[in-house]
Design a protein that fits this description.
Helix content is about 25%, strand content about 25%. With about 325 residues, it is an alpha/beta fold. It has 2 domains: about 180 residues, 3-Layer(aba) Sandwich (Rossmann fold); about 130 residues, TPP-binding domain (Rossmann fold), CATH 3.40.50.1220. Helix 3 crosses helix 4 and helix 5 runs parallel beside helix 8. The relative contact order is 0.12.
């Protein structure tokens, strides 16, 4: 067993994703406390050429699982073999579609303990310790693997859990890719792809989110929210009610059956704040809500609750932000 901390480093279009840079910094921080080093498990288009560059993000070592555009889950067998040879204390995985697939596959292959999505992670007395929201967000728990559980513990981290390093230098040493049969996961293939709309690409990584719910009233009602999001330099999200109504794509849905986000600011417009939606956004640093209903549940946990007509408030708020920022 080692005291290293591994992380999944996804590449897209030849570059490491934001989640890869965040997890690199988190793994480096945790590894320093445990007496080990951060090790990247790189996959995706550009991983073969770019893995060494993760040294500037915090990785001391890297292993390339796959440098092609195939399904992430196809790298499960080489990842399992690489982990088995090092037995690190933890594997950090991003709470993204590819991160979830690959993490779940390696948990099944090796019988590993798993946690997530988590709001924070630390290493205490040589063991991983995480904080998670449970019971549909009504309880925050602190958890750790049972004594004697196999290593590593797999931890799925929300976007924004760690901040990428700034101005880093260095190159990661490359470990050889394990030569193993990829098994049934390796037979998975991408049959067809559909690029996501620009509006939904960065929702999970956005630091500012303006979300609309049933109170927005229509697809056209989201236009003021898009203008406000643009003024803030953020992204637009939605409740399940708005997505079910067809006003926005389901990729924008936030909540128990949608995406889990962790922005610095979450501005909910016309959203009641039912527990299913709260699960997806409760880790936001600041929550502002605009709703006509003074008894809306979102008012119970919002930092600022504005009771009023969003169509009167949002345009004025947008105009003031543009005046101050020049956007």
């Amino acid at each position: 067993m080692s005291t290293n901390v591994w992380f999944l480093a996804e590449f897209a279009d030849g570059q490491p994703t934001r989640s890869a840079l965040e997890l690199a910094a988190g793994a480096a921080e945790l590894a320093r406390g445990s007496g080990g080093v951060a090790v990247a498990a790189a996959f995706g288009p550009g991983a073969a050429a770019g893995a060494v560059g993760l040294g500037a993000a915090g990785a001391a070592r890297a292993v390339v699982l796959d440098g092609e555009a195939g399904p992430a889950i196809g790298s499960a067998a080489p990842l399992a073999a690489a982990l088995a040879s090092d037995l690190p204390i933890a594997l950090l995985a991003p709470a993204t579609f590819n991160g979830r697939d690959l993490a779940a596959a390696v948990v099944g292959l090796l019988g590993l303990p798993a946690f997530g999505p988590v709001r924070s992670v630390r290493i205490t007395a040589g063991a991983v310790e995480v904080e998670m929201a449970t019971l549909q967000g009504s309880v925050i728990t602190t958890s750790r693997p049972s004594p004697g559980a196999p290593q590593p513990a797999v931890v799925m981290a929300l976007a924004g859990t760690f901040a990428p390093l700034e101005g880093g230098t260095g190159r990661a040493a490359l470990d050889p890719t394990p030569t193993v049969e990829r098994g049934p996961f390796g037979r998975a293939a991408i049959v067809e792809t559909h690029p996501a709309e620009a509006a939904v690409v960065n929702l999970e990584e956005a630091s500012m989110i303006v979300a609309g719910g049933r109170g927005v009233g229509s697809a056209a009602g989201f236009e003021p929210l898009r203008e406000l999001a643009a003024a803030l330099g953020g992204a637009v999200g939605a409740s399940r009610a708005a997505a079910d109504a067809g006003w926005v794509p389901y990729q924008l849905q936030i909540g128990q059956t949608g995406k889990v986000v962790k922005p610095a600011l979450y501005l909910g417009c016309g959203i009641s704040g039912a527990i299913q939606h709260r699960v997806g956004m409760q880790t936001a640093e600041h929550v502002v809500a605009i709703n006509k209903d003074p008894d809306a549940p979102i008012g119970e946990f919002a930092d600022l609750f504005v009771v009023g007509d969003l169509f009167a408030i949002v345009p004025r708020l947008t105009a003031e932000i543009r005046r101050r920022t020049g956007r």
